[in-house]
Write a structure and sequence with these properties.
This protein is mainly alpha-helical and 145 residues long. The protein has a domain of 51 residues. It has 7 helices and no strands.
Length: 145
């Protein structure tokens, strides 16, 4: 019955349209100032309203193995199955971080704020002779230092 009602509404709208017999139909492309279609404007319209994800180049253009890149992609989108994510879904989980037993386990805690993670980062940077670039503990995003 809803379809019939919708048809009648459209019918009422169409009845108000008056066609000019001497005027040709004009196609206007609303994504171009000139009103003419172009492949470039179509491609740009496809991404209209999308957002740029800054860490994507940092993740995908590295020499790391594909599984490491995928893990970092999950980290960047906060999609790792940590305690906070398990708790939101009502699944069984430990109360705190299994490494330090001090704070709730989140992916950012595991990778940057946990004392064990910080020690690991420090040892890793020292081994490779890189200045200490460990993420700050107050950072809530692993990709921001």
């Amino acid at each position: 019955m809803a379809v019939l009602s919708e048809f009648l509404d459209i019918w009422d709208l169409v009845q108000e349209v008056v066609l000019q017999p001497d005027t040709e139909d004009v196609h206007k492309w609303r994504f171009e100032v000139s009103g003419k279609f172009s492949t470039k404007s179509s491609y740009e319209a496809f991404f209209n309203g999308s957002t740029y994800f800054a860490p994507s180049n940092l993740i995908w253009e590295t020499w790391a193995p594909r599984k490491c890149k995928f893990f970092l992609w999950l980290v960047a989108h906060n999609r790792c199955w940590t305690v906070d994510r398990l708790a939101r879904r009502g699944l069984p989980h430990p109360d705190h971080c299994p490494l330090c037993d001090e704070e709730d386990e989140t992916i950012n805690h595991l990778l940057s704020a946990c004392v064990f993670a910080r020690q690991l980062w420090h040892q890793l940077w020292r081994f490779f002779g890189i200045p200490d670039v460990t993420p700050q503990t107050d950072s809530n995003n692993f990709f921001l230092r």
